[in-house]
Design goal:
mainly alpha; 2 domains; 13 helices
Length: about 375
């Protein structure tokens, strides 16, 4: 409730907060707005220049759009790569044009060389601009290739600079998409632990192929979470807003590293559980008790993963994430104790249960 808003909990700040949350969750509309502003500004700036620029004013807004990104550093990098690609493509065009080649052969040679050069790592995602620039200078440049190349590269560079300035003034910090991807991955890891528990608790054990298909289903979400976090981390550089959200961003990075370790731990647990040759699947009382302990541990760790950080409804009440971590640690400790006693009595027969306990303990430590 906002001060002075009465009991309704509404006020001018509520729509603003809702809008801000929506832009955090979906950063592309903000990116589109910044691109539109930068393109419009580039178009206005280029109008009074006159001269041969009047024939190609559209390259300025094109450069502004190319340079636009949620990251200031990525924006500057894209701008530099695009301009470098244009300059390189123009240079190739001048070289080909100096050769005694007919039109079709010159175009073919220019495109071939441009595609080869475009593979250089320096150009990054802008590599395709090299053959485009070569083609445009050869064909569109006509009788004045130098004037066209200067207009093409210069106006694109001008627009790109405007795009970088807009990004510097209005930087984004896309932490929410990364957090959403992490939440999805965390939920899937928890679901996988529940499936492990169900497999141990039932008479039918999932086959290796079943677990392999389940693991492959996680791969896209693992990669997406890593990519979004990498983008969010890069967006903190040269970003004057980053300091305000530094604590949140640091926490996201810590959670990402924990999720990576968790994924590795759960992979190891799957390998131990699905191997029907291990003592976990033996038909004796001790193995049955270990399966029961492992099932409880899997469910407790899954519950821990599903418990998200946040402000509790009762400030004096228990901390839900901490309580879930404590329960998970307790369940894993009980599994370790039983596995230790079983190992002491039967040697290495129940080593798989002890290995599962150690790996789950590492998972709890990674997330706590």
């Amino acid at each position: 409730m906002h001060a002075g808003s009465g009991s309704t909990g509404t006020g001018p700040g509520v729509p603003l907060k809702t809008l801000r949350a929506a832009t955090w969750r979906h950063p592309r509309p903000v990116l589109a707005a910044k691109a539109a502003v930068a393109a419009g500004a580039a178009w206005l700036v280029v109008q009074p220049l006159g001269g041969f620029v009047d024939d190609y004013p559209y390259y300025a807004p094109l450069g502004a759009v190319v340079a636009m990104s949620t990251s200031v550093v990525e924006s500057a990098r894209s701008a530099a790569q695009a301009v470098a690609a244009i300059v390189t493509g123009a240079a190739l065009a001048f070289g080909v044009d100096a050769l005694p080649l007919p039109g079709a052969a010159a175009v073919a040679a220019g495109i071939g060389l441009g595609v080869i050069v475009a593979g250089a790592r320096f150009f990054g995602t802008m590599g395709s601009w090299v053959p485009f620039a070569t083609l445009f200078v050869l064909i569109v440049g006509g009788a004045h290739p130098m004037g066209y190349a200067v207009a093409y590269g210069g106006l694109t560079a001008l627009g790109a600079a405007i795009g970088v300035v807009v990004n510097l003034a209005l930087p984004q910090l896309p932490l929410t998409p990364a957090a959403m991807a992490q939440e999805r991955l965390r939920g899937q890891l928890a679901d996988q632990l529940d499936l492990l528990a169900d497999g141990l608790a039932s008479e039918d054990v999932l086959s290796r192929d079943d677990w392999a298909r389940l693991r492959l289903a996680l791969e896209p979400d693992v990669r997406r979470a890593e990519d979004l976090l990498r983008a969010a981390t890069e967006s903190r550089r040269a970003n004057w807003r980053a300091r305000r959200w530094a604590e949140v961003a640091d926490r996201r990075e810590e959670q990402a590293r924990a999720l990576q370790r968790l994924t590795g731990c759960i992979d190891e647990v799957i390998a131990l559980v699905v191997d029907v040759r291990t003592s976990m699947h033996a038909d004796d009382l001790v193995a049955a008790q270990l399966r029961e302990r492992a099932t409880a541990a899997f469910r407790a760790v899954a519950e821990m993963l599903r418990t998200v950080d946040g402000e509790p409804e009762d400030p004096d009440g228990p901390d839900a994430p901490a309580a879930a971590s404590t329960r998970a640690a307790g369940a894993v400790a009980r599994l370790a104790e039983d596995a230790g006693r079983a190992g002491a009595a039967a040697g290495h027969r129940y080593l798989a249960a002890a290995a599962i306990a150690v790996t789950l303990h590492q998972a709890v430590e990674a997330w706590s």
